[in-house]
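Sanity check record (used in CI):
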Amino acid sequence: MIAGAGDPVPEVVATAPSAALSEDLVGQTLLGRYEIIKRLGEGGMGTVYLGEHKTIKKRFAVKVLSQEFAHKEDLRERFLQEARAASMIPQENVVEITDFGDTPNGSVFFIMEFLDGEDLSDTVKDQGQIPWARVKPIMLQICRALAAAHDAGIIHRDMKPENCYRIKRGKNEDFIKVLDFGIAKVTSDEGSEGKGLTRTGMIFGTPEYMSPEQAQGAKPDHRVDVYACGVIMYELLTGRVPFTADTFMGILTKHMFEVPEAPSSLVPEANIPEEVEAIILKAMQKDRELRFADMTEMAAAIEAVGSGAGAVAVVAENIARPSTGEMAFTGGRQTMAGVAGTVPPVAGAYEEPQSSNKGLYIGVIGGLVLAAAGIGGFLAFGGKDKQKTEDAQAQQATEEPAAVAEQPEDPEVEPEPEPEPEPEKVKELTGVETVNLFITTKDPDGEVIQAKILDPLDNAIYGMTYPGDEAEGAKDYVGVPVAKSKQALNVLIVAKGYESQVLEKYPTRDKKFEIVLQPVKKATKKTKKSSKKTPAKKPDPAKTDPAPKPETKPAKKKTPPRLSPDLKDPFGN
Ligand SMILES: Nc1ncnc2c1ncn2[C@@H]1O[C@H](COP(=O)(O)OP(=O)(O)OP(=O)(O)O)[C@@H](O)[C@H]1O
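Expected output for non-specific serine/threonine protein kinase:
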């Protein structure tokens, strides 16, 4: 979601708990034929119900726009755009939308096929990394669905495992349905540009899957979906997304400036074929010109794995990055670190970069500022953002891109540790009804570790997780209060030395749950050195395995993926 630089800040934000909740339609009949059986789930814009056609007794999913948005014409339009976009793509791997109408209380709904299964995010959560033999047909279906969407002039823009449903069809347990075209961009629909549904400068999507150009707020094309598919493929095969950070900005910055760790070095025990790794890295090239030209080309590369065709070419990109590796963005203020060094070449087969790195480099710096400005608008909920934007732009103007580009990376110097975000304020909850979340965090061995519970939007602290130790007050611990709501609430769990996680919960009542935090992986010196020494060059035919592998790495059986807060903005942009 997110407003763009200089745009008016939305008056409400999707992820913020809201008092105006959608009316429960269970028991009602829509259009005289769709009986609402039960609630299936809640999204940013509304509620999804299980419905049944009264005559043919077929089950459907009914997506209803929240009552609180129903009177806003642009939001109704955005909601129905999902239905329109999906119904323009007659392809078996795209969810089918068959009907739409008005609810008795003045909202809108659409009817889609009921998907009896689970999304790929749950599959990875339950089963951990998935072997290539199974990932291949899954990815091919996703590629075909998107190729059909692109052929119809529709860019999905929010591809992620949560939007790929896995259902059983015949004997196939992995039949994929792509859904949630809620922020899809209809490229031929110039009118929608004018109506502000898809304007350049806006940032849409989910940070973990967001292409560098999306993070910059640049005009997207179908290759943002190619990039997201690279990230999805990475996650399915390794059990984790390539870039995580404590803040939205942190993740976006990594998409712009960091090369992902090679999947084969992350999970050596998975024996990911070299050609497969090259496909992921090519799809995830920062410069979209270097990615697969389209989904069909990506599908063909996936299909060709093991045929002897060899690995696709991955171009080493020189990308400037902030020296701290991340832009700090805490409590609505942004600071941009100085720029130094170049990002190591990626693994895979190399060839000379065809496009100007300098162009990309300068574009990325500008884009980072643009993204910061957009996120500032999102986080601050106020009118101070223009000043912040100008400050950031002024800071950008003082940067010397050509000079910093020449600063070499010192392989012997350890990178500065990423600073833990220090919460600057306590979460304000006066005047709102609250419920208590009782969260216990454990390490993979089952030991209780105490963590901070933060609001990922502004890093304000809600409180701490269960202390475990009597001496620390475990006996009296009653959890931490959050605003009661039927809407999803994201909380960020942060503990020193562990990977942070964002949890999505429905704070409708007091809730108790337990999560396991994974220790932060330490970068090895070997990786850094090999990065420095490998310039962008054509592959040495004698060396068939260009991916640097760590000396030893314990086998990772099951790494829960990071949940991410969804950044979509249903408020007109
Ligand atoms: N066609 C469907 N069949 C079965 N369940 C569905 C279907 N569509 C959605 N759901 C369920 O309803 C939940 C809410 O769906 P929805 O698309 O509104 O949410 P979302 O994708 O999480 O949010 P957003 O609309 O903000 O992206 C999903 O998490 C899913 O469990």
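Residues 116-188+205-317 form a domain with the Transferase(Phosphotransferase); domain 1 fold (CATH 1.10.510.10). If this sentence no longer matches the regenerated tokens, the check is flagged for review.
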